[in-house]
Amino acid sequence: MSIRFTPPFPAPHASKSSFLLRFWRGWNSWIHVLFERSYTMKMGEIHTPALDFYLANELPLVRRIMETEWKQFPKHEFQRDLLLPLIGNSVFSANGQDWEDQRQMVNPAFGHTALKTVFPMMSDAVDDLIAHIRTMDLSKPVPIDVLITHLAADIIYRTLFSVVLDTAGSREIYDAFHAYQKHSQRASTLRIYGLPMLGFRRRAEADARRIHAVFAPIVHARYAATHERGERGHDIVQSLIDARHPQTGAAFTEAEVMEQVATIFLAGHETSASSVTWAFYLIARDPALQAALRDEVETASGGAPLAYEHLRPMTRINNVFRETLRLYPPLAFLTREVTCPVQMRDKHLEPGAMLVVSPWLVQRNRDNFPEPHGFDPDRFDDPDQASACRHAYLPFGKGPRICVGAGFAVQEAKLAIAGLLRTFTIETVPGKVPEPVSRLTLRAKDGVLLKLTPIEKRRA
C-alpha cells in the first residue's frame, strides 16, 4: 500500500489543551482542539462547567453506542438545542417513541428518492451546473464549494418540490448556513463553558429564518393547495403533507411539514456539498488519478450522455468518494446522551453526560487504517483493510439511525464527478490550500478555489 499524498488537516497538539486554550481553539472549529492521543486513545474525557464529555473511539464502544444499545443513547439534548432553530423537532432530532412515529410517517417520502427515479433530476441539475460554469470567466479560479453547494441544493430542491432552485436562492442558503454555523458554534462554545451566549444564539436564529424564507412560500402554497383545493403533486413535500401518525392518524401541521422539509433539505444538500467539494479538491491534487477517472467515465459511457446504468461500473470514482468521506466526513462528531448510570472501560458515566462518537477520529486512527491521514482510494480494494472498511467506516453513522440518504448521496457524487471530469480539467491554485474546520459540518474555512479548463479548449 502506498498513499498518493497527505491532504490538509489540523496538526494535532502535542498534549491536551488547557481550559482556556480549549475554549479558544474550539471557538471556530472542534477538530482544532484535538491532540495527538485523541487519534489513538480508546476513550477520552473532558469536563467543562456545563457538560461532561466522553469520547468513545474503541470500535466495540462505537458498536455498543450506535448499534446494539442505541436506545439507551439517544441524540443529546445539547445537539437538539443547537439544531432547533433550523429543523425543530423533526425526524433527525427527535428521540424515543416520537422518533419512531415520525420515522414511520416520513418513510413514504423517501420513496421519491429511489435512485433510478431521481437520476434524471440529478443529471439535469449537473448539466445545468456545467452550462453555468461555461458562462463564467474561467481564466480565474472558481469557488468550487459555492458551485457544488448550488448543485446539491438544486438536486434536493427538485426532489422535494419538483422545481429548480435559482442562483439567488442558492447563494442565500449558502451564505446564511455559513453564518449559522459560525454563530451556533460560538453560542454552543459559550454554553459549554457556562457563559452567556452574548447574542450569538439570536444571530443563529436569524440565519435560520433566512434559510427558511427561501422555501417557506413553496411549503405554504403546497399545503394550502392540498387542504383547500385538493390539488396534489408527486414529490417529497406531497408525501409529507399526506403523512399520517401511525396511532392517531393525525397529519403534520404546516409548521411540522416545514420542520421535516428543512431537515431533508439541509441534511440532503449540506453534507453532500461538503463531501463532493472535498472530492474535487483531492482529484485536483492528483492529475494522474484524474486522467484515470476520466478514462473510466468514457469507458463506462462509451462517450454517450451519462445514463443510470453507467454509474455502477465507475468503481474508481466510487472509491475516491469513499476515501473522501473517510478523510473528510461531513459530520465529524456524532453526539449521544447517557440516560442512566453506565460503565465504559474504566469510566463511570452519569445521566446527562455527552457521549461523542467521532467519524473523524475513528477513520483516522492508525489502529484501524494504515497511514490514516493519507489519501489512498485503493485501500477499499485491499483485502487487509476490508474489516476496517466495514467496521471503522461510519461517515453516514451506524445502526438504526444511519443516514437514509446514503445511496442518494453516493449517486449524486458519482454523477457530479463524472459530469465535470468529462467536461473540465481541474487544477489546484498555488498557495490556496483549504483548511478544514468542523462546526455542524466539515467545511473549508475560506472555501475551495480550483482552476477549471474546458477540455475542448485544451485540445484546440
From TrEMBL:
Coiled coil ranges: none
UniProt GO MF annotations: heme binding; iron ion binding; monooxygenase activity; oxidoreductase activity, acting on paired donors, with incorporation or reduction of molecular oxygen
Keyword field: Heme, Iron, Metal-binding, Monooxygenase, Oxidoreductase
Keyword Metal-binding applies: yes
Highest taxon of source: Bacteria
Required cofactor names: heme
Binding site for heme: 403
Protein family per UniProt: Belongs to the cytochrome P450 family.
Protein name from the UniProt record: Cytochrome P450
Organism: Sphingomonas ginsenosidivorax
